[in-house]
Design a protein that fits this description.
This protein is an alpha/beta fold and about 290 residues long. It has two domains: about 15-140, 3-Layer(aba) Sandwich (Rossmann fold), CATH 3.40.50.20; about 145-285, 3-Layer(aba) Sandwich (Cytidine Deaminase, domain 2), CATH 3.40.140. The chain is built from ten helices and 13 strands. The strands form three sheets. It has a six-stranded mixed sheet with strand order 6-13-11-9-7-8, with helices on both faces. Strands 3-2-1-4-5 form a five-stranded parallel sheet, with helices on both faces. A two-stranded parallel ribbon has the order 10-12. Helix 8 (about 200-210) packs parallel to helix 9 and helix 9 runs parallel beside helix 10. The chain is globular and about 55 Å long.
Length: about 290
């Protein structure tokens, strides 16, 4: 028998939130509570913030403890599951598989042979085959999505608009290779493409290239561009920015940050706007 899915906001029973690092999981949890839903947070050990977790009904789980998650979620009546928060790509050798995880391991192991979207979308299918329904964090809390237009700083110049367009084009071309969600472009020159290191480390690499003289453009030139991969499952791992991104962009000597509106999540938007204005960095949501 096939169940017709309930609406994401209304949902069906308590909402399970698998919680990584950062503030976004709590924004989603608070939005769900405002909608009248009970929330059960599964805090990932070594990633979730212990002090903030304490305010919510929660359980701690280690990466790979699927059996523990399933048992506790089902005991609470959770069918809907949201994955949100910063988490590094796990190594097979650093997982803590319990008996429940061992049971699904033959389906999970092949997923590690590919990029992040391949891994995450595959894990999503495994969860759904086990009776859970994956819900995008932005379906619960649409206010976390980047709006269209400028949110901080000045308007980008014509040259910067061209750099943004080039960055979006490059990310679209890279999508089939599942290698990253961010690039840095300055004066039509691609300075960096995000790999497994993540956005902040990519920007640290740009900062070091500037210090070493390998980048000739002066400080205050260049744009960080972020966009979800074409065909990406938007319930999992949407690109995100926050105050830390602004700080990293400033250290890299960039002029601004441009992300696709409606498919990028923003952590602590008020603080981000204040920090960006203080740093002299523009932040803008652009259309595809």
């Amino acid at each position: 028998m096939t169940l017709s899915p309930p609406s994401a906001a209304g949902g069906e029973g308590p909402l399970a939130i698998v919680c990584g690092g950062g503030s976004l999981p709590f924004a989603v949890a608070d939005a769900a509570v405002r909608q009248g839903r009970n929330v059960l947070v599964f805090a990932l050990t070594d990633w979730a913030d212990p002090q903030r977790i304490a305010a919510y009904n929660h359980h701690w789980v280690r990466m790979g403890q699927y059996g523990r998650f399933k048992r506790l979620a089902q005991a609470e009546g959770c069918r809907d599951v949201v994955f949100i928060g910063a988490v590094g790509r796990p190594s097979l050798w650093l997982l803590w598989p319990d008996l429940g995880a061992v049971r699904i391991l033959p389906r999970v192991l092949p997923l590690f042979k590919g990029g992040d979207n391949h891994l995450l979308s595959g894990l999503g299918r495994v969860f759904e085959s086990e009776g859970f329904r994956l819900v995008g964090a932005h379906e619960i809390a649409p206010e976390i999505l980047m709006p269209l237009g400028k949110v901080a700083g000045r308007d980008p110049t014509g040259t910067e608009q061209a750099d943004i367009a080039r960055g979006v084009e490059l990310l679209r071309a890279n999508a089939p290779f599942d290698i990253g969600q961010a690039v840095v472009v300055a004066d039509n020159h691609v300075l960096a493409v995000e790999g497994p290191e993540g956005t902040d480390q990519m920007l640290a690499r740009v900062a070091e290239l500037r210090r070493s003289g390998r980048i000739r453009t002066p400080n205050g030139v260049g744009v960080l561009v972020k966009a979800a991969k074409v065909g990406q499952d938007q319930r999992l791992d949407l690109p995100s920015i926050g105050p830390r991104t602004v700080e990293s962009a400033k250290r890299a000597g960039l002029a601004g940050i441009a992300v696709l509106a409606g498919s990028t999540v923003v952590a602590e938007p008020e603080r981000l706007a204040v920090d960006a204005a203080s740093a002299g960095i523009f932040v803008i949501g652009v259309s595809p």
